[in-house]
Write a structure and sequence with these properties.
There is one protein chain. This protein has 278 residues and is mostly helical. The protein has a single domain, classed as MetI-like (MetI-like fold, Orthogonal Bundle), CATH 1.10.3720.10. The protein is built from 14 helices and no strands. Helix 1 crosses helix 13 and helix 4 packs across helix 10. The longest helix is centred in the first third of the chain and has 32 residues. The C terminus is likely disordered.
Amino acid sequence: MTKRKKHTVGYYIAFVLFTIVAVINVYPMIFSIFCSFKGNLEIFSSFTALPKRLRFENYVTAWEVGRIGRYFLNTILLAVGTLGIAGLFGAMASYILSRFTFKGKSKMYLLFISGMMIPIQAVLIPLSYLFGKLGIMNNYPVLIMLYAAFCFPMTILILTGFMNSIPTELEEAMVIDGASIYQVFYRMILPLSMPGIISVSIFNFIQVWNNLLFPLIFISDKDKGTISMGLLAFFGEYSTDYSASMAGICLTTIPVIIAYVFFQDKIENGLMSGAVKG
């Protein structure tokens, strides 16, 4: 007979606190799912009760009125472009910062990660004025570059720590065999850094997916709108379709949940490797 492990009072306190935090984080999603199957009157009469009838037509309305399908593809296009640029060039910069020694290296690293302290709202007016003068509004490549610029700080912060954990002996062996710096990076460093790249790409994907300010200001063509702009279609000046908006919210959160479920292990391993060994 094995003895039952005794837990301390701190264990139970921590368990209760973490349970409360989990409930607080999960409740909004559960609330949205329940309300997405209700009518507007039913939501206001008793928003905590289960739906009396499953109104799947709310999802049809959300898909058509919010143009979820069209905006879904637009946002995926922006996200893929942003992840590609931020991941590749962020990995290049991280490799230089983690492996090479040069004057001003620490200042350059600080300059990169200091971008995390710049709020998006602080640059909206200058950028909108500049983009208007240059005539590059409604431009996906420009918007992708803008997204990538705000993703670089987090990307470099995580990947630099991750690449510090890769043994230098592997690079030295490739150099002895005649490999150039580009071959070392593309054939060894980049593949070994994929867990870290996937981890930071998930965070960057969420940032692009949830971003409303950039497309709202720099995209005026409705055909080029994003998924966050589609949710605004349910909120009018005199009326709001809450049931359809809740259905739209559920539809827009599905890709993020799926991405995290499939890459959960890689995210955790990538973050832990960079944090512990970096």
